[in-house]
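Homework-ish question, so no full write-ups if that breaks the rules, but can someone show me the predicted structure for this set?
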Amino acid sequence: MIKHIQIADSRYQLDGSAGSDAIHRDPIYSYAVTQLFDDSGITGTGFAFTLGEGNDLVCKAAQYYAQQLIGKDIEETMAQFGTLFRKLSNDQQFRWLGPHKGVVHLALASVTNACYDLWAKKREVPLWKLLIDLSPEELIRTVDFSYLEDELTEEQALELLKSQVQSKPERMSIIDMGYPGYDTSIGWFNYSDEKVRENCKKAIESGFTAMKLKVGSADPERDIRRSHIVREVAGEQVKVMLDANQQWNLPQAISICGKLKSMNPYWIEEPTHPDDVLAHKTLADAIAPVKLALGEHVPNKVIFKNYLQTGSASFIQVDAVRVGGVSEFIAVSLLCKKFGIPVVPHVGDMGQLHQHLVLFNHISMGHEALFLEHIPHLQNKFVHPAKIVNGVYQTPQEPGSSCELLDVKS
Amino acid sequence: MIKHIQIADSRYQLDGSAGSDAIHRDPIYSYAVTQLFDDSGITGTGFAFTLGEGNDLVCKAAQYYAQQLIGKDIEETMAQFGTLFRKLSNDQQFRWLGPHKGVVHLALASVTNACYDLWAKKREVPLWKLLIDLSPEELIRTVDFSYLEDELTEEQALELLKSQVQSKPERMSIIDMGYPGYDTSIGWFNYSDEKVRENCKKAIESGFTAMKLKVGSADPERDIRRSHIVREVAGEQVKVMLDANQQWNLPQAISICGKLKSMNPYWIEEPTHPDDVLAHKTLADAIAPVKLALGEHVPNKVIFKNYLQTGSASFIQVDAVRVGGVSEFIAVSLLCKKFGIPVVPHVGDMGQLHQHLVLFNHISMGHEALFLEHIPHLQNKFVHPAKIVNGVYQTPQEPGSSCELLDVKS
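A: Not a homework solution, just the prediction itself:
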């Protein structure tokens, strides 16, 4: 039984220009952390990610949700978590502040993730192991399918999961092989050309076969120059992604993406405003075969559904510390599977939680094991930091979701 | 010069079942109030609306924005307000909590509205008068057009306003006539059938020719029965609107709206999730010629642009205490004008601020003077309550935007 809760506001100053992009020039990576203390002495930890200012608002909202869990048994709670998620996310006064987006939804992510962590710790297994061992029926009951009915009912989701059961054993080999990573940190926005060049070399030496450069400069020539530097150093076989962090409006995006085509990007990420589903559709049609990726600022499954319906995104970067936690991450992954679109999470969690979720997506849902973003900047803040060897995430073995932070005391 | 600021968390318990709808069974109408104190002794007041829980979060975010106004001259600020709005709404750390939605955007609404109020008070005119007297160039500079460029550039907006200048004098007659109102309070969700019947009679006796009923019951038969009661009492000439407050998923909405057709609703409001642009498009096509209205939960101009591009909404209910205040309300109204869609605001402000804005929309933009929602429940909380005579809003004459609250001291 959950006997008490604690919310912590943890902020971490980054070194130099790390983390900078076209919009966020000076971020402070921050977590609104929920801890659920079980009367058996086990603590569940979950968090949402912010860039500093306002992390306290998310903490305050998380307090509101988390206190509703006091007195609950975690096994009973998770047996019907979809119902609880629906109830919490539609709290009749609080939902006005969203609904299902912004501060309140980030807070719900924090609390939801703490529930999944506690669940796995009670069962003494890593979260990926817990999730792949659930039956399709048990899994479905952790998810709220409301407002997805026109594309994916609960029954259809159940069929989808069942259809993957037989082939699960083949996909278990990923556990030993590890999940491939890609390097996001070669080309933060404020890095000099020289530093990008060096980082690119280092990434290749470290075994990465995919990497990402920040673009979205006021001067498109800078973007073009830097993207060609990366291509030149990386060679033709390496996947190079470009990330504009919403910096362009639609006419600019059409023009600049056209010019970036020549360096053969694997995808162009967040070209424009994350709410603008139709602009992404127009852009995708205009620049095909160049592909778009997006999702780090998409707050919920309903908007992801719209993106999938238009076919504008070729890669969905849902982030479990942005949407309503693991539960909604699963809902979005199911939707993506239905539409045949790969899930390549944005890792506001630095990959700690997502290293579990991508294993689950691959094994239980049959999603392609493409690669998972790797950002090393907070590695020394975690009790069990993700391990990347030769560009590959090593499968975590400790119980839970790897989200405990050293500076957040139990 | 703004010398200090103050943020107030004001909550008002409603009587009985007033304010109840399909989702919000027990709301506490609340305002996150920003006051800007000018060194000339004048105070600008603005607010955002919430349903109670979490109003404090909006206050805290408003504090963050408002403190950035200290030391600024209001005339200089408003001469380039669009630039300031863009800067504030894209604050590089805070925008992660949106962007442009949820708690932070509600907070920006509160602060923005206080700026417009202060501006009008300094000029000693009601806000509607200030706005209609601005030149098209001055108006445009109060608005941020970013991410609208594919549909409405600053230059196109300027042309649109200029094209309406010559016919402005004809539309000034609305000032003396007053702006028609419609009655939202005949049929709150929890009211009994008998009370709906009585309220409907009273509304007609009070001169209203349009009124709204809350639907979205778990039992569609209840909705159908009650809607026919209103039609029967009101007669065929009265416009009757039905409001489902997002209660249906798409398959339900298609089915139930089909059944509600027979009572000839003027519109069906918020049939499903406010983020689901494509579901509204599918629904609108399925139930034509029945029309949809929406907007009270749409947080920003980008999503409104998508709704307008799909042609799914026949009435846009943008609310200046939900989007980023008067400035973004104007942006959305300009977009609507371009698409030929009427603006019929949702009035989280109880019509206090919007009575100014609809006059401006009609006179300066040439929008049809359809009607403005009327909700009387907080009438006695305002220093200058909106006056409705014979179903018509009487044009406010006091300087400012009519948003001062009796319990929020200067």
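Now go work out the reasoning yourself. Hint: Residues 102-122 of chain B form the longest helix (21 residues).
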